[in-house]
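Have a close read of the entry that follows and walk me through the local backbone shapes. See right below:
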Amino acid sequence: MPKSHAHAVSFRVVLRQFALLGQPLRVVILQRLARAPTSAGELARGMPVTRTAVVQHLKLLEAAGLVAASTQGRKRIYRLAPMGLAPLRRWLDAHMGTAGKACQSSQE
């Protein structure tokens, strides 16, 4: 795959991840999963949406590779998929290098 095509594919992945994380509830879900794997029902407790709504968000996050699921009995247990966040992290690292230096300079 030519480098420019690979870059374009990678950037599309990053754009999709940013779009998914633009929904605050999905960010909360990822934060909770970062603490411990859990079921959709447990994730829905204390949230202003139904379990069904949480499952729909989980499906989107899973399709994007940000969340992985396994079956334990009748439950699906969801966990954060750190490798799925790798494209976003690489993009942020690449762009924060220069931005981070600019922020650091302005604070001095």
User: Anything to note?
Assistant: The first strand starts at residue 38 and ends at 39.
